[in-house]
Amino acid sequence: MTSAGDLVSEHELPAEPQARPAPAEEGYWLPTDDGIVRALEGEVVDERSYAGTPTDVTSTDEWVLVSLSHRERDGGTLMAYEPDLDRVFSRGLDGLQLGGQPAVLDDRIVVATYDPDGARVIALDDQNGSIAWETSLGEATAAAPALAGDRIVAATTEGTVALTTGGQRTWNASDDPYIASPGVLGDLVLPSSANDELVALHTDGTVAWTWSDGVDSPPYTHHGGTDAASEDGDETDDPDPQATPTLGLLGLTVVGWTALRARRDD
User: Fold this and answer.
1) What are the structural domains, with CATH classification, of the chain?
2) What pTM value is reported for the model?
3) Alpha-carbon gap, residue 243 to 264, rounded angstroms
4) What is the pLDDT of residues 60-88, one digit of tens each?
5) All residues at 6 or more sequence positions from 191 whose CB lies less than 8 Å from its CB, including other chains
6) Cβ–Cβ under 8 Å, residues 182 and 218
7) Dmax of the chain from CA atoms?
8) Nearest residue to 149 (alpha-carbon basis) of 183, 184, 125
9) Edge-to-edge strands of the sheet including 131-136?
10) What is the sign of the dihedral through the CA atoms of 264, 257, 174 and 177?
11) Does the pLDDT at position 123 exceed 90?
């Protein structure tokens, strides 16, 4: 659909979607529960079948990354393709399930994984899928890692954890459980708390500002302002006095009933 809500195309699928679509060059990728990832441009122009169930597709200018889960055995698999769908590597992670979408960092593909004993962040070499490093988080997470400057940030049930690009843990923030991948807004990290509070952290882990007003869904960043939804029905366009000038025209949205908006125009 267009931004005005006009229908551009529609296509009936033989199976249920497993995750949100990922953009392709002229359409989008969509994983479905029949083990197939389809490329759609108004109609199916390509499809790939897998032994496992595709749970996420991530696409960038350089990569199409497919995350798989397997019912017949424990563990997930990451399939890495070039944009023309030439396969670069397939990496199985025995006993570990993939949590959310991978993050691409220079020559590394960073994934969050989990098993009954906890979670870890693993960096894979982008040429062959070999493990470059892995760091145990010790707490459960099923959320994708986020990149914030020179830090890799992961959400866990016991707080937010930041790692260097080499996998060394640099800080833990808060004991609050975080339920989804953190948002990144300029030089701020915005964890998704289960405690109805929006917290903005600097990349060194210190608190930049907080907003406690019934936030009820994960944040995501966009252009044009800073939005956050609550349940009290109030909305304001007043600038946030604690917002940093580096926000520029970037913004934040937390989907819910209404929005608090803060914008800093330089």
Assistant:
1) 145-266 (2.40.10.480)
2) 0.69
3) 7
4) 889 999 999 876 567 899 999 998 889 99
5) 155, 160, 173, 174, 176, 178, 182, 183, 199, 201
6) no
7) 55
8) 184
9) 97-105, 108-115, 118-125, 131-136
10) negative
11) yes
